Amino acid sequence: MELCEYTIHELLDKLSTGETTSVEITESVFRRIDGVEGRIHSFITLLRESALEAAAEKDREIRQGIRKPLGGIPLAIKDILCMKGIRTTCGSRILENFIPPYDATVIGKLKEAGAVFVGKTNMDEFAMGSSTETSYYGITRNPWDLERIPGGSSGGSAAAVAAGECVASLGSDTGGSIRQPAALCGVVGLKPTYGRVSRFGLIAFASSLDQIGPFTRDVEDCALMMNAIAGHDKRESTSVPREVPDYREFIGKDIRGWTVGIPKEYFIEGIDPEISSALREVIRTLESSGAAIREVSLPHTDYCVAVYYIIAPAEASSNLARFDGVRYGFRSREGRDLLEMYKKSRSAGFGAEVKRRIMIGTYALSSGYYDAYYKKASQVRALLKRDFDEAFRECDVLLTPTTPTPAFRIGEKMDDPLQMYLSDIFTISTNLAGIPGMSIPCGFTKGGLPIGAQLLAGHFEEGKLLQVASNYEKRANFEKRRPAL
Amino acid sequence: MEYEPVIGLEVHAQLLTESKIFCGCSTRFGVAPNRNTCCICLGMPGVLPVLNRKVVEFAMKMALATHCRINPFNIFARKNYFYPDLPKGYQISQYAEPLAEDGYIDMDMNGARKRVGIIRIHLEEDAGKLVHDEHYPSSYVDFNRTGVPLIEIVSAPDMRSAEEAEVYLRRLHEILIYLGICDGNMEEGSFRCDANVSIRPRGEEKFGTRAELKNMNSFRNVRRALEYEIKRQQYVLESGGQVVQETRLWNDPQGVTHPMRSKEEAHDYRYFPDPDLIRVEISGEWIGDVRDHLPELPLAKRERFVRQYEIPLYDAQVLTASRALADFFEAAVKECGKPKTTSNWVMGDFLAHLNLERKDMADSPVTPRTLGEMIGMIEDGTISGKIAKEVFEEMWASGKSPRQIVEEKGLVQITDTASLEKAIDEVMKANPAQLEQYRGGKDKLFGFFVGQTMKMTKGKANPALLNELLRKKLSKE
């Protein structure tokens, strides 16, 4: 096995014993990138030189006995997170040449934790999409089947972890953009509670839904990443000043006597039968760990997609107004006056899906429609939250499929936005409720495509997710595979 | 037909906090373009606003001073529109659940008390400024002002004349400055006013169609623009037309209002609660704390001055025009104990010098202590009122204390009878003709002798004593 294929905790052990160095790990990662990136295209920008320099620096620190939580581990970062001095495109032409003069809070935290940054990963433009096909910088392919999409919008970050192009990565999740690609690429993905991880420096899609979270190869790595990125940030008003536990302490802890809820609205017709049977297997495994299984109801589930596709585009239409060609980013040279400059810059700078959502959102907020759409959607959102509050009164966690189908073919849903939107049907509610959600690998289809199971918990109960997930991971008996590349 | 104007004003006042409303940048005016900016007020991707609590506190002062009800939960909303001086493409403002609602201001209209309602006061961020190049078809943007805190004060349509509107505006201005939350500078734009005006036949209840007036940057222009607009609307109605609801710009050089291009005003702002900001909770305790630290307001101070110092209402009005002037007056009175004399000096020579040199109260070379001391010297007879004028000039020029000036220049009043009598004798000797005429019954010449003796003593003669001695001496054969 190559160094680039190990987990963070395995590599930290190897680094602390001197068995390997950060430079060796980083070189291994770039060897893998050189080998597979042409086929997968996980990255928009690679940071080879600065990564190797940072790795050498980490090795010096390690030799001096300085131990950092992620010291010397090569990570990939979704290109939606601002990194000082490094081009940050958000998958859009409009930010083709944008170099932020500041670090996102999570980047600062990862730097402090000693991480090495491999590159900025590909994504759907402004995180709007479920397949990484709306990126201005080309598509990313699923490492398990190059004819298929890796999921989205954080497809690059998921594919990079699956393919060994980094050890772990960061993504962002507004309606499933971490969990869905994690499921489709066979890795672990966590969307934390809204307010748990600072959004400062995350280019906003829908501010009330966006969260940053990790992609990792196993559950313990997920805990390590959460330890590094979670916590209150004075620079964000919606960040919650609440103590951060050591997430590693939840790993492997017993779940005997816990209750796992199965929301009946999530086991509907139309789910791929192989996914249904994989989920049944997960339920059996959790039962064998001593957890009680209980069917619960989230009665407002049917409204999730409708509510989401009002709130998210409405916020996006406002969040994306700053990309106007005036101060940074792409500006059309053709405009003869201000209005034309705006129109031409934004018409040429944004792709079709982004424009579609800006129009939906603008419409939903316009005078005379606000009450019928945005306000009503916000009210239904409150009801959805209540559904979850009630479910978590009886259950420790909820279990659902992450996606209704495994990875679909490239181009399959690009002409049918509605079908594309429905691929997030199980992940959207989590963001609307602000609760944490996690996708863990739970087997493969006969065709060799990964399947993901989604675990949900109450606000700030990431620990419970990790505890259940690590229990499952230990007992699961599906074959641990790596994609054949 | 006789028409009655109906006027409501929207005032934007910049708050004097040290830093901007949602970031740590300085609010200082007059620095080089784009110096007071950061990634947050420039609206860079991924940045987030954090509310400056001082801003809320400043705005609460205005809300309390205008008797508004402060909402326990404030919500910030986004007002969406595109303009190069608005970096985020939206302005963070308040819409539903503003800071405060339902207040009023009492004002004095030619002796009658007039109350104007305040509909709401809300918080928002200011936009930047465009600088147009005269020689090239290009414009520059200065973002220093972006994110400077503003309050918008919306009055009820309670004013019935341009004059009332001007008085309301002046009262509002005065209160803001008294509270120390706004510098009130209209030229620099820290106090701006838009007006809504309509007219209706007198006696009619229903409002007419209103026009919104913008671009008036002085009290005088607000009044002029309103006067013009009232006449214009009257003309439109009287010639059988209808007033159109529109935004009109005041053109100062031409003295008229022009309609704004409709393209510029066709905005749907798509307000919605800003998801990046949590609601602001304002507890009764916080309100109480702000209320406890509220300074005395102009109207109350005026009434107290009349009562406490027994000075005329007119004096009280002049002296309370600013908090600094009122403080100056009170400090000087404390020094000398003579309110009316102090009032005369402050309103007279002191203000005249200040205005002439366009000086700030803080830069005045004459302090309450030195002015009080000088008035004390008049009262105890050390110097005459006339000498005092000279002393005051010197105090203004040199900043020295009156006692020092009087000593240095030998200006102490002559109060000893012998030396005064000697001077009078000399004057009498030098003017035998006038003396004869006086004694012959020409009483008017008394003033001549006062003047001559004053001249002889270089103005230092104690006037009362001089009068007494002169009368005695002149009537003697």
Q: What report would you give on this structure?
A:
The complex is a heterodimer of chains A (485) and B (477). By secondary structure, chain A is of the alpha/beta class. Chain A has a domain at 3-249: Amidase signature (AS) enzymes, CATH 3.90.1300.10. Helices cover 39% and strands 13% of the residues of chain A. Chain A is built from 15 helices and eleven strands. Chain A has an eleven-stranded mixed sheet, with helices on both faces. In chain A, helix 7 (219-229) packs antiparallel against helix 15 (462-475) and helix 9 (304-319) packs across helix 12. Chain A is globular. The mean pLDDT of chain A is 96. Chain B is of the alpha+beta class. Chain B folds into three domains: 3-289, no CATH class; 296-409, no CATH class; 417-475, Orthogonal Bundle (Arc Repressor Mutant, subunit A). Chain B has helices spanning 53-65, 162-179, 219-238, 262-265, 284-292, 298-309, 313-319, 323-336, 339-356, 368-379, 385-398, 402-409, 417-430, 432-439, 446-456, 463-475, and strands at residues 3-14, 69-70, 73-74, 77-80, 90-93, 100-109, 112-125, 129-132, 139-142, 149-155, 191-201, 211-216, 246-251, 256-259, 272-273, 280-281. In chain B, strand 13 and strand 14 form a beta hairpin. The mean pLDDT of chain B is 92. Chain A binds chain B through residues 81-82, 88, 90, 95, 98, 100-102, 104, 199-204, 206-208, 234-238, 314-315, 317-318, 320-324, 326-328, 338, 342, 362, 365-367, 370, 374, and chain B through 39, 42-51, 78, 80, 82, 84, 87-90, 141, 268-272, 275-278.
